Amino acid sequence: MTDSEQTSVVITGANKGLGFEAARRLGKQGWTVFLGSRDEGRGRAAADKLAAGGADVVLVPLDVTSDESVAGAVRLVREHTDRLDVLINNAGAPGNIVAPADATAEEVHAVYDTNVYGPIRVTHAFLPLLRAARHPRVVMVSSGGGSFAVVTDPQQPVSKMHELAYSSSKAALNMITIRYAQALPEIKFNIATPGEVANRKFAATDMNHHTGQLTVTEGTDSIIGLAILGPDGPTGVFVDRLGPVAW
Ligand SMILES: NC(=O)c1ccc[n+]([C@@H]2O[C@H](COP(=O)([O-])OP(=O)(O)OC[C@H]3O[C@@H](n4cnc5c(N)ncnc54)[C@H](OP(=O)(O)O)[C@@H]3O)[C@@H](O)[C@H]2O)c1
């Protein structure tokens, strides 16, 4: 069982990229990190790396598109703790960036399964453990692409990225987060985007073929900031590492 004073966090998609960096940073703070990975081998390698650096880390096989996998993840976490302080819904998929004229419902559905239904599946399953914590927080990892204000700004590169699935999935995730925040005031639900929206910067990861201008550490600043919020922190906000992001 996890020490009752030790803060615990579940991070989805934590085997690489921003999820892994968030796991590394929170592990360094002495938190118990439940490192979610849909592939057990990749997750094991990531967890071993953090454990070698002294982190208290538990590998949790977790595919956010599978009810069965999510239920298994909750069972495993329950073997270690009877409460969960923080859930970071980080796992995300870009889809194939298909032009709107060519997009099919099937293609969009696959992206929603990870980016929209995934966070709902995981949040719903972990609610009882979150509710058992004193100051539970849920961090949703969204995108500037999920903001109507950003996508309709011609100065923003994303305004010229013609696709349906990814941006609309993150817009849906933003609304879902607000609805959770309104309905469950005892849990803080907030949204982080890893980039610097005003400066049109994003973080270099596999998802963007490492074309981003920010490091993964900079990319996780907003995620970490929301994860470590105190009891008087906000709920229902959308931020990047520089501050609030327009909806
Ligand atoms: N990089 C940026 O600047 C940026 C900007 C805006 C938003 N984001 C968001 O940040 C989050 C992390 O992305 P990243 O940049 O770190 O990309 P990444 O390096 O490609 O990492 C994505 C992670 O999500 C996991 N994942 C995908 N589908 C999954 C599923 N069904 N179940 C569980 N895990 C799954 C991946 O696992 P596998 O290794 O098994 O594929 C991987 O661990 C995403 O939600 C993304 O949309 C990133």
Please provide a written account of the structure.
- 49% of the residues are buried.
- The protein has one domain (8-244): NAD(P)-binding Rossmann-like Domain (Rossmann fold).
- Helices cover 40% and strands 14% of the residues.
- It has an eight-stranded mixed sheet with strand order 3-2-1-4-5-6-7-8, sandwiched between helices.
- The N and C termini lie far apart (41 Å).
- It is built from nine helices and eight strands.
- Helix 3 (67-80) runs parallel beside helix 5 and helix 4 crosses helix 7 (165-183).
- It has 247 residues and is of the alpha/beta class.
- Bound molecules: NADP nicotinamide-adenine-dinucleotide phosphate.
- The site of NADP nicotinamide-adenine-dinucleotide phosphate has 32 residues, from helix 1.
Integer-rounded radius of gyration: 17 Å
Largest sheet: 8 strands, mixed
For the termini, the CA-CA separation is 41 Å
Average of pLDDT: 97
Q: Give the names of the bound compounds.
A: NADP nicotinamide-adenine-dinucleotide phosphate
Give the uncertain stretches in residue-range form: none
Strand content is 5-15%
CATH homologous superfamily heading: NAD(P)-binding Rossmann-like Domain
What features would you highlight for this structure?
single chain; about 250 residues; alpha/beta; Rossmann fold; 9 helices; about 40% helix; binds NADP nicotinamide-adenine-dinucleotide phosphate
